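It would be a great kindness if you could assist me with a short task in structural biology. I am sending you one protein, given as its amino acid sequence and as whole-number tokens for its backbone shapes. I would ask you to consider whether the tokens describe a fold that such a sequence might reasonably adopt. The full record is reproduced below for your convenience.
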Amino acid sequence: MSGRRVIVELVAKKKGCMICVLAIGILEEIAPEFEDGILRWQVVDVGSREGITRHAKLGAICGRMPSVPSIVINEKIAFDNIPDMESLTAAVRQASGSN
């Protein structure tokens, strides 16, 4: 593995959020560009009890609550919105150390 593991959390509401669905599509699209094991991602669904709990934890870790939708990379708020594919890919590459 040539880079550090990157954990991307999409803070979103799965039901009824078209922007959130778009963000999931972007993550699915960019994931194959990274070596196996580098990029792991998950949705923090603020419409679920588990998601609300993780959202609160991220707020404590990050020093403020991530907006909905937003992207958190390695427990740091990277985007307060949904970025385009190129911006997200570049952010993941930078976080992995493989620029």
In short: The chain has a mean pLDDT of 91. The first strand starts at residue 6 and ends at 12.
